[in-house]
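Expect chain and fold; see below:
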Amino acid sequence: PGGTEAAWHWWDLVKRGRKCCERGCARGRRWLREGRVESVEGNEGGRFQNGAVPRGMNGRSLLAALVPLRDLARLSSRTPGPLCSELRGRIGLGGCSVAVGMPRSAFRCAAAASGGNNGGWKKQRPQQPAKGNAPSFSRRQGQYQNPRTSGSQAQWAPRTDSPGAATGSRQGGYSAGSRQRTPPRQQQQQQQQRQDRPKAAVPVRDLLLEAGIHLGHYGPGTQRTSCPKCLGGTDKEKSLSVTIKEDGEFVYHCFRGSCGFRGGSGAPAGSSSSPSPSSSSAQGAGQGLVPLRQGKEGSYSKPRPKFLPALPPQVLQFFAKRGITRETLDGGQVQAEWTHCPQKGHNALAVAFPYYENGELVNIKYRLADEKVFWQVKGCKKVLYGLDDIANESTIVIVEGECDKLALAQAGFKNCVSVPDGAPSKVAEQGPPSPEEDKKFSYVWNCRAQLDHATRILIGTDSDEPGQALGEELARRLGKERCWSLRWPEGCKDANDTLRLHGEEGVRRVLEQPEAFPIRGLFDFRSFQDDILSYYGLKDADERRGVSTGWSTVDEYYRVVPGELTIVTGVPNSGKSEWIDALLYNISASSGWCFALCSMEKKAREHGRQLLEKHVGKPFFDAPYARGEKRMSQEEVEQGLEWLGERFFLIRHEDEMLPNIDWILDIGRAAVMRYGIRGLVIDPYNELDHQRPDSRSETEYVSQMLTKIKRFAQHYDCHVWFVAHPKQLQNWKGEAPDLYDISGSAHFINKADNGLVIHRSRDTSDPATMRQAQIYVRKVRNKAAGHIGDCVLYYDRRSGRYLTEDPGDAD
């Protein structure tokens, strides 16, 4: 009596949603334990024996037990026929078929054991069917047979669309006849919701890295990078094209004909097949891709919450003070629960923040509404709060607390997540550990699939020191190249403070003006604004516009700027080294610069003699080149040596081995730090120990060598003169060589800031012409320091100096 009305009342509860159903199951089981259910046959004392449904169960008993009808596979043969037929025809019992006259089957409620996922009944040991017209169970075929009918229409086959069909149909979903029933309306809605939910990005980063492929980001799109097999050939070109699709499938192909490295997680575009990542092979690589190493999901605990049916007023008031409305709480699936508080040691009302991953509840973080006390369910998986909100998002926001995430949602930014744990006290001195050892930030590695999809990550941690340390640690693991920092207004610690004090518009202004996360070695011009303004105010005499060479005719075309590289060339015995010594002496005398000299073609004493002659202005010896002029005195030599010792320093290899460029630059760094040198001379290129691998061409070697020299000059604000001889000229008739005639590579002129050619006439019949030194300025990168042109100096053999006017016949 009253069974039909009671069943319809329960169906109204079912339609309210799955959670309501699960709460109903829990309430029904509590009533059974308390003995509040009426006694029925086989249920003496108001309790189900071993969880079995009694044979004499009627509609009223069914309602009292609050059993979810949508998961009940069989009803007792004594259940009222009108109720069964009406439920079967109009409700469908949630995909369960009901037959009148079927025997009793033992069931037990599995809602508690399954965490409320199904809220259904699991079939126990099958019992012998009753005599008569009851269907029999065939162990061989795994299906029920009705003796009253024959053929396929008499079979009760397990439902193939139910979760338990593939494993013996433990959930008891059956349909009449060979035709399978369409799922009920509620099950169709749940399936549609699962289909409409954005798919999480497939974690392709590890698959690509294991194939040796490194990308700037791992979101959808096509990128070009270096091929791990051919390395781009001799030109180091980015020949590997990698395409990542929206669903996470990816393909890659090297377009160099001699390589052909290709593969991916699915079939290339236009192919009819689409293999899974675990079964795909890296064609051309010679081996299959190693599947992504997944964590042991079975090792995590599953939360079993008992959420309250509605948020209590004190919880709503707690969030209302923070500027967060009820609609935002519903969107964030915020719950409340009476649960045990480990810090207090007793049960308390707590705000519950459920952590979902792909729609599955994996963790819960609790907080007392009236006190800042937090705890999480022990043993659960650590993920980001709101993880499903950033699925397939290219721009995401990471904040430090759940209330900050809700504050951004209140301002209209749904693509936001919050970290589950607190911030570290300071930034770790060493880099991040391996993912297996990075326990503190395990949630970052657990969410790699979703985070790798993002190309722009806004980090809005708290403005205090631990919050900034958390932002730095997150950027280290996510890649600073795609991270931006959010700066909260003055007086606001986080996003929730900004919402309370400045409203939703204040939050929007912060997110519209992110600052690029600082990357070591990467700057914008705003970082050098003061330096540029001071450079603008320089006078002509300032050395940053170039110091004088000591010759007015040369200054018109060439001035020495700190941090630049000058290539000097000329045929042998044209006075290249002598002219550089004279230039260094002039700069030292006028600007006080110090220099390091690596001259491998000169002995130290010979080099000292030449510099002393230029300093004193007299010949070092009474030799024919002195033309009768008196040599310098002992006192002048000693004074000159003291002057040399303060301004010139020699770089020389102490053994018979030739120095290489790395060794010279290392000694040059030491000279900068110890003596403050402003110039370095390397003379000449062909005397260096060129440790060039057989696989590297001379052009590649020269390019890398000059790059190292230029980096040294720019970093230490030191001018470098590099002397290089021209290659052997065919049919040379005494003309000046060009910079492109330098032996080795055209990079000598391409990478130099300045290029000079020193040339002297070899015509012995005209002594005046032989005294002339032609200075050909063939390249000046900095137009503020000079321009291309020619000038003439005159060499004085007695003092070794170069003069702007002809000293007369001194030869």
The first helix runs from residue 3 to 15.
